[in-house]
Amino acid sequence: MNETTETLNLAEVREKLAGKSGRAYWRSLEEVAETPEFQAWVDDEFPNRSSLMQLDRRSLLKYMGASMMLAGLGGCRSLVLPNAKLVPYVNRPEELVNGEVLHFATGFALNGVTTGIVVESHFGRPTKIEGNPNHPFSLGSSDSFMQASVLNMYDPDRTKGVAKKGITTGWDGFLTEARGWIKSFEATKGAGFAILMESTGSPSLIAEVEKVRQEMPNAIIATWEPAARDNVYQGAAMAFGKPLETIYDLSDARVILSLDSDFLGSMPGWVKYAKDWAKGRNVDGDPSKMSRLYAAEAAPTLTGAVADHRMPMSMVELENFTRALAVELGIAVDFVVLNEVVTKQVKAIAADLQSKPGQVIVIPGEFVSAEVHALCHAINGKLGAVGKCVRYHSAAVYMAGQQGESLKALMAAINAGEIKFLLALGGNPVFNAPADLKFAEALKKVEHTAHLSMHLDETSKVCDWHLAESHALEAWGDGRGLDGTVTLSQPLIDPLYDTKSAWEVLRAVRPSMNSARDSHELLMEMYQAKGMTEAAWRNALNEGVVPNTATPPVAAVAQSVASKLGKAPVAKADLEILLRPDPTIFDGRFANNGWLQELPKPLTTITWDNTVQISPKLAESMGLASGDEVEVTTADGKVRGAVWIFPGQAERTVTVHFGYGRDMRETLVADGTGFNAYVLQNSNSPFLHSGSITKTGGKLMVASTQMHHYLEGRDIVREETLDEFLHGGHHEKHHHKDISMFPKQEDEFPYEGPQWGMTIDLNVCTGCHACVTACQAENNIPVVGKDQVMKGREMHWIRIDRYYGTKDMGELGGRKPERADLDNPSTHFMPLACMHCEAAPCEPVCPVAATVHSHEGLNQMVYNRCVGTRYCSNNCPYKVRRFNFFNYNDRKFSDFKLLDGEKSSRDLRVRLMVNNPEVTVRGRGVMEKCTYCVQRINQARIHAKNEAAKGRREKPDPKEGEIITACQQACPTGAIVFGNVADKSSQVSRLKAVKRNYSLIEELNTKNRTTYLTKLRNPNKELENA
Amino acid sequence: MSNLIKEKQDELKELLPGQHSYTSLDDQIGSLILDNKRHPKVWYLFVAFGFIGANILLMSIAWLVFQGIGIWGNNQPVGWGFDIINFVWWIGIGHAGTLISAVLLLVRQQWRNSINRFAEAMTIFAVMCAGLYPLLHTGRPWVAYWLFPYPNILAMWPQFRSPLIWDVFAVTTYITISALFWFIGLIPDFATMRDKTKHPIASRIWAALALGWRGSAKHWHRYEQAYLILAGLSTPLVLSVHSIVSLDFAVSIVPGWNVTVFPPYFVAGAVFAGFAMVLTFAIPLRKWYGLHDLITDKHLDWMAKIMLTTGLIVFYGYLSEVFYAWYSGVIWEQALIQNRFFGPYAAAFWALWLCNGIIPQILWFPKARKNVVVLFVVSQFISVGMWLERFVIIPMSLHRDYLPSSWGMYTPTFWDFSFFFGTIGFFIMLMFLFFRFVPVINIFEMKDLLFKKLESKEDGHAAPVPVGGKGGE
């Protein structure tokens, strides 16, 4: 522009200005002059200006025409894209607000015992199950089975309707035929008709069965469930004359003796028991009141793992141990002296039990013999525990203690050819009835058979009729808790397929019934007939429990048991083969549930398989290594499986879990997992057999999530005894000094607002894995399959590390394990998720800033930004990051099995319905990890902001207790506490201030937001020195 | 003074023995391109082998992109396996080329002239192979470009604190400079080929590549300036590239990675590996093509000496890691060394010490340095050893770090091997195509040497050698 100034002819400018009409404005002389240079500059500076101005009429019309044509292409949308419709609600369903979650209380039944649950529903789609705080046996906590049961509903392998010998007919076809058969039994008062059910405590179903009994007194009614607690009830019957339910109150118990019972991990009611036990272990109040737990058991259980003294012994030894203890306490019974060590243990434990009268419990397990149960009732009575720590109620389940007998009676009738129509409501007896009963063979003698189940399972395949069963979240019903508390079950969703519940089928098949009646109405009428008002009904539905329905405690005094017990058992030469339900898939009913299949068995960390668990000594003597194939033989059958050397297993015992080895080739998950242990089972003693194992020479692959089990002298899990804790623990010396070359900076990052942090109390963690399943359900964590677990690619965001330690707690893991330690090691659990380090090593190494820190102290993953270099995971000292090596969410399980055409063609979309819409589903190639349930934090924050905007609270920050992470919510013992660490009055801050608080590998200076509380042990000094 | 001249003469004689004229040099090197008959049967064999390998590489890439990283053996805790081992291995191999081209040029080592061309080619091809890994080892390779600082509407930069970003800059700079350096050095020879060839199409191609080179004084002047500047730029790269690659590890907090000695020790290791690879190709090349006059025993001897030196530096690095693990008293480091000595992969560790620490010591003996068979075998051991070194550093450190619960094992899969084999095939294919279509030895620099040799004979004085070492005819 400057150059043009020189050539500017001012005279010309004046002339131009003079020539302009009207009022003119100009910014520079050049502009007025309108020199070509100026024009060029303007055109250069504003290139768009000229083009529009220069557009001629013809071009303009051309462009307009073309534009309109292109705009019209939008109308062809449906040709190239799916023609989606958005339709708003005309009448919004009551309570449904877009984006808001609804919660409904209902019940979850397992083994006939119902526990209250609260189900989260997104737009009528149940996704997540939590415990019901109102239910006395949940108190807000849950276990893995409850958590995972929602996945069963969305199982793509579920059957979708009624079929006769594989041909779909619909319910009418079946009901017409069945009613005809039942009518034909009228003359004989039901002779020829049999009903086989699972354990149940449901008042409505029991009432219906009782009606059948009245209508058809000659019909046979049997209940069968592999994990039925017959022994428990028979033991009570021995002691009290009737099968009472025994309920323990551990919150006040100071000394607890567990006799092969897993009351902290699998016994019905364990969620509440664990909660109460944790109260007794609390040392932040009065440490001297800390309880002491002894466990005598054959196979290690979670209870044994956290016990102060664990005594491995075979079941015969266990009975003699109990008898010896009874004698020591003054109950005369016969017993065999075992050895000096046990005698000393018995004396010490007896003294300990007697020192705290009324505050002690002896708890026998569900699978120990009825004799031991009877003896324990006598011992508890003698110790003054009854009425305090031990209460008796009437039995929670139908036909308590007679399930095995009822099945045998049914078998006898079938084999005699008396049964014409067998209606099996649930259960899977062809798979899981004891081998000696030969159920499948007997079934051929029955003229008409019908089986109600969710899958076309082993029993359905051999029955004439397969009836599709509703999931518990699809049906109305009710159930009783362990203490009799009634819970109403309400459907969260219309049945996905053409299904009915057992209660509905039992009503529909009988010609006498009006099958058109709605279950909801019937159930309501039934309760109203008992005097419940409609308001009370609504309230019971809302609260999840019917108030005051717990059965009153029965004042029972154990009769003299000595005469019934007989001679003390003597050890046999054979091995004891213990059959137990699987820790994660139970009796096999969860075999097609991916979450539970991939959930590591708490103590062995094995996934996708059952194993033959043997003691290290037995392995040594037989030259076996984990993974070797062996054949297990009992009087009734034999089966082959992989051996797993289980430190802590009693020497001459072998534990085999039943539930695996399903014959369900067409399923996506259950197919090909484990072996069927039911073939070993005898109906006379379903849980204890004598038998042998032989090495076959084969080798099987077992997928375990943890390969290394010792701490290698590293300061990871901290444990000390109560004495050390009270008198200055030995971990004081561990306290890390912050050594840095840099000047100390107090506030390196100006954190604002609430700061999230977590504590995990190792003292009360029982390693139950409820948190793992809860996290999986909440955060849409994919199931990866056995081959991927074997490669070390499981995706769980929270894992529970299990370490074996030596007896010498002073040098935990500091020395190499010795033989003695292998035979009975101490066991340590450590739940581990992202530590949310303030100085997170993962963050600076990410090349694309996909993992970053929030101002509230969260270490965040930005999935969309992640390119997947995996550098963050390499640099994470805690190895909590998980990488999507494949597109796990979209990968069909059949992909792992050579692209089975039939399976891969299955419609798997139903499985996606379980996903939590609040959490991103991660695709292939991105890293993921624990977010501290950021979706829950954000929900609480939105709520808080709304509240603050309405003036209901000062600051728009969530308050203490408004955010509960999924793992915290599930945890039965309250070991996990989450909250705002900036608020010094919060629970998490208070816990971080206690002496036991420590940070994992503190010397790395990563400043973890998750810290741990040291584990404490309360050993009996007399036994400790032994 | 006369001693110096004598030495110079001797050196020139050793570097360019035989009775060569300018024309004979043109012919001997140029005919490799012009005369198909000069290529032995084995050439076809290797190109075919390389071609198969390259196709396996393509298949491996296609399956990888289709399926995901899961087809490899990488897992938790071993996030990096063959991908990064091979990346570092290939990058290391490239280093000899740069060292020979740039550093030896600047320090006026004339013996470089007969090997620099193919060493540089090796660099470029090796970096091409190396570059595939960081790109394709990402979980989502289609967004790997996010590692580059490019303008975008998110106003999102890469995260500059990450060593992987430093890698991106180091490697892209490296390949750019190396390729430019190589190409500029080729221009006068392209012109020679343009003039020699009689094939009309070939001559057009050579002409295009020669960029109008006429050998005028101005051309030579400009050429030398450009070449020298690029040599100056390349020299720091010899140190920087592998130092930065080593920072991928040294910056982390993984025991076995967080080692301050890594940068110099990686550079030494890279030169070590690079020379082993140069020898791997030079020894057969000179035998098959009768290039004993150009790649002489003296060359091999010098290269062997460099290998011996850098090998000792590397071995010193190994020993210092062991020493510091003991001296520091840090339990993680001690556990690491224990795992290397006696852990499940101890065999790899001891094989590494054998290959890189023990076997190269044979090069102390002049006879061994003169024996091509010994040299070739030692070179193979070093190549394997340097691969093992990266195996020891990467998966062996990751598989057992802080928490014993997370310890795991790393087992490479078929696709790990196929990808690695594929890059080797691709590399071999490119090398042999290069032997066939590009002057494998620097013609004009050899002429320059010849000129100096003839000059020094005539008047008894060594001709002044300008930096850059190219006179001009």
Describe this structure in words.
The complex is a heterodimer of chains A (1026) and B (473). By secondary structure, chain A is α/β, with parallel strands linked by helices. Chain A is built from 38 helices and 38 strands. Helix content of chain B is 71%, strand content 0%. The longest helix of chain B is centred in the middle third of the chain and has 34 residues, at 163-196. The relative contact order of chain B is 0.18. The chains are: A alpha/beta (1026), B mainly alpha (473). Chains A and B meet through strand 29, helix 32 and strand 33 of A and helix 6 of B.
Instruction: List low-pLDDT spans of chain B.
Output: 460-473
Distance separating the two termini of chain B:
28 Å
Q: How confident overall, as mean pLDDT of chain B? A: 85
User: How large a portion of the residues of chain B is in β-strands, by DSSP E?
Assistant: under 5%
Biggest sheet strand line-up of chain A: 5-4-16-15-14-6-7
Query: Got a strand count of chain A?
Result: 38
Largest sheet of chain B: none
> What proportion of the residues of chain A form beta strands (DSSP E)?
15-25%
Number of strands of chain B: 0
Q: What overall geometry of chain A do the principal axes of the alpha carbons give?
A: globular
Which structural class do the helices and strands of chain A define?
Answer: alpha/beta
Largest beta sheet of chain A, briefly? 7 strands, mixed
Name the quaternary structure.
Answer: heterodimer
Radius of gyration of chain A: 34 Å
- The helix content of chain A is 25-40%
- Element order, helices and strands of chain B? HHHHHHHHHHHHHHHHH
Largest interface: A-B, 54 and 50 residues
Summed up, the helix count of chain B is: 17
User: Helix fraction of chain B?
Assistant: over 70%
In DSSP terms, counting alpha (H) and pi (I) runs of 4 or more, how many helices of chain A? Answer: 38
Q: Which class do the helix and strand fractions of chain B yield?
A: mainly alpha
